[in-house]
Amino acid sequence: MNHDELLRFLRGHRLAVEASVTADGAPQAAVVGYAVTDDLEIVFDTVETTRKYGNLVADPRIALVIGWDEITAQIEGVADIPQGRELERLREVYFTAYPDGRDRLAWPGITHVRVRPRWVRYSDFTAEPPRVEELRLG
Hints:
The protein is of the alpha+beta class. The protein has 4 helices and 7 strands; from the N terminus they run αβββαββααββ. The chain starts with a helix and ends with a strand.
């Protein structure tokens, strides 16, 4: 799988299961709506009172699963809370996928999280033989 194939796959979906770790080491997962940049940065919105936000500020390691059924991408990476121009750039990508995201800017504590993937496992169990490929990024 190359960059363009992965980008097409990621853009073909709108939801991901995000996993982070609490301060006491317990796992925590949530479903998020996301968008992806040409550079494979994944961006989603959340509010500062959510568990995922607190988890990621304390420990930026993150895992995502995108796709369901027999074709998925498992992603591990690092999350950050962008500011300034980076935040504006990423918001525009997010608003392209979720125009209603602009309305959420009025919510108290709304923010956007960027994920920079470091490892991806793409699995397609509809292929014969199954296609399973791993990519290391960044």
